[in-house]
Amino acid sequence: MGPRWKGKGAEVKALADPISEIVIQLQSSLICSNSRGLLSDTNVLLKADTEQTELLNRACFGRPRVTAEKNEQWFQLCMEEAFYLQYSLKCIKVVDHDDTELNSDEAWRHMTSRREDFPILFKAFSHLRSKNWVVRSGSQYGVDFVAYRHHPALVHSEYAVLALSSQNGSANDRLRVWSDFHCTLRLCGSVAKTLLILDIEQQQSCATSPSCLDNYVVEERTITRWSPEQGRETKAKFDPSKK
Fold first, then answer.
1. Which one from 148, 150, 159, 216 is the annotated catalytic residue?
2. I want to staple 102 with a disulfide (CB 3.0 to 4.6 A). Which of 107, 137, 193, 229 is the partner?
3. 116-224 adopts what CATH topology?
């Protein structure tokens, strides 16, 4: 199943404005302004100026929050997005409510305390983002993420993503029996998405710091629903003259 572009010229616009270039511009802008994100339980609030607001929207990081300020905008980042900007791109700092800066290890410990499976989810998120996929929450489809080839305004999401780990029994509960596969595949098919399984192998069980991410191996698998109609032979017509 290939990309489904939204309207004429959408593919041309996407090719002329690659996500990789937008992310580089965003990274540079955030570093230059010494941007700081405020940690708020399971989210990080990031203040952005006019230029950064445009870049965050184009790169699809966070969701804008309505404010009364004219020249500044707040964005609500999920934990995976915030940690990707802090740890992977090194372009924002994360502070708590006391305005104390948290280094990567401290932010990691906070996020893993809020979600036990955060290391697996972040590895999946960063794996796709590093390949220039736009990654958004997949909760409305019963999956971890959905992946877009470019901005959602230009193209529909292509993959419904589940991040699983053999060391994480709770994650595998979702696809433990055949009925789980059947329901998930039927849902993905009904919304024209391919199910992408990211099987994450933890070569070390300790996840006390983000350095453990180097020991995670990601295996990609796409699963599609087989239809008997697609494999059936064309019915031959009887020709009496060939008796």
1. 148
2. 107
3. Trna Endonuclease; Chain: A, domain 1 (3.40.1350)
